[in-house]
Write a structure and sequence with these properties.
The protein has 257 residues and is α+β, with helices and mostly antiparallel strands. It is built from seven helices and twelve strands. 24% of the residues lie in helices and 25% in strands.
């Protein structure tokens, strides 16, 4: 089974890129982020024609997450991250796919930091850690995939000294991520590629993709049940080079299912 996560940076504007990649990669489960489309504008007809079922949580102009499955039954569990009844941003979606729990997330960017947006990021991370602690205990495989907007270590960014004050790399952000990982989660990319330079995002500016000046901010976290099934992981880096592509590349894992 192949599971992927992809920040599409606008599902309708980049639909041809998404469909091309789905046809090429043929993932069985896909977590999408940054749909930038209200609920009624999600391109479900095109997704269905491509052979996928979908559940999604849209929001006008911003955010938005979706889970797609190819030939697999999908049942939504929830679309609100617990802990803040006033949070209306569409950043989290949880579903059962077979006997596996899939959590799709688009963690807040948090810039400029410090400030209200950064406070929201850290609060969101705290809420997510609480939910993750609960999910980790499930006697089922659990996969938490998405755009975490967190650079875990200096090894995960080109020229880390330039990112010290950025919300993605600030000490508080990395500390919150380390607290999450301390629950026992496996970073699927690093588990299989501990010494390899791997990026998942390249800015549109300054020829970042051409220079391979990237960041690793899209992650797969697996609980023990899921980690035991992990076979391979990687990044479809070439997709970032396609015309009118997202500034993220699809990230994927394969599992013994």
């Amino acid at each position: 089974m192949k599971i992927a996560t992809y920040n599409v940076n606008g599902v309708n504007g980049r639909l041809p890129v998404l469909l091309k990649w789905l046809h090429e990669a043929k993932p069985d489960i896909v977590c999408l982020q940054e749909l930038k489309a209200p609920q009624e504008k999600f391109p479900i007809e095109a997704i269905t024609a491509a052979g996928y079922h979908a559940v999604w949580h849209g929001q006008k102009s911003w955010n938005g997450v979706a889970i797609l499955t190819r030939g697999l039954e999908i049942k939504e569990i929830g679309r609100i991250l617990p802990g803040d009844a006033e949070d209306v941003q569409s950043r989290y979606l949880e579903a059962m796919v077979g006997d596996m729990v899939i959590g799709c997330l688009y963690l807040p960017n948090g810039n400029p930091a410090p400030g209200p947006k950064y406070d929201y990021k850290l609060q969101w991370m705290s809420r997510f850690a609480a939910r993750a602690a609960h999910l980790f205990q499930y006697d089922l495989p659990v996969v938490l995939a998405g755009d975490y907007n967190v650079i875990p270590t200096e090894f995960d960014v080109y020229k880390p000294e330039r990112w010290v004050d950025d919300a993605l790399f600030r000490e508080e952000t990395r500390s919150a991520f380390e607290t999450l990982m301390a629950q026992g989660w496996t970073d699927a990319i690093r588990a299989l590629h501990p010494q390899e330079k791997i990026y998942t995002f390249w800015d549109y500016f300054r020829n970042a993709y051409g220079r391979d000046a990237g960041l690793r901010i899209d992650h797969f976290l697996l609980n023990q049940k899921a980690s035991a099934l992990l076979l391979d992981s990687g990044v479809d880096k070439h997709v970032r080079g396609w015309e009118k592509s997202s500034d993220h590349a699809p990230v994927w894992i394969s599992m013994d299912r």
